[in-house]
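Q: Here's a chain of 94 amino acids. Please give me its 3D structure as tokens.
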Amino acid sequence: MTKMTIDSIVVVADKVVSCDLDGEAAILDLKDGIYYGLDPVGAKIWNLIQKPIILKEIIKIILDEYDVNKDQCTNDIFELIEELLDNRLVKVDE
């Protein structure tokens, strides 16, 4: 598996659809038929990765919009992207 860095590029995988549910995101993997849900911050990140984006750009945007420590923000975003990657909902490239 590719080691993610802040310079990795993330994008939503093929065959994945989503919708906004009052600020949260509902995600459906059409291949597996499994639903996933994201809280408002996760939904914000999900919206950012609809087009390929570098992880450090996501971190910068979240830091600018939310009152959060940089290390905590970075760790939380990496954790979310790794979980989405494990569920084949995103693709990560160097």
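Q: Can you summarize the key feature?
A: Residues 9-93 form a domain with the Outer Surface Protein A; domain 3 fold (CATH 3.90.930).
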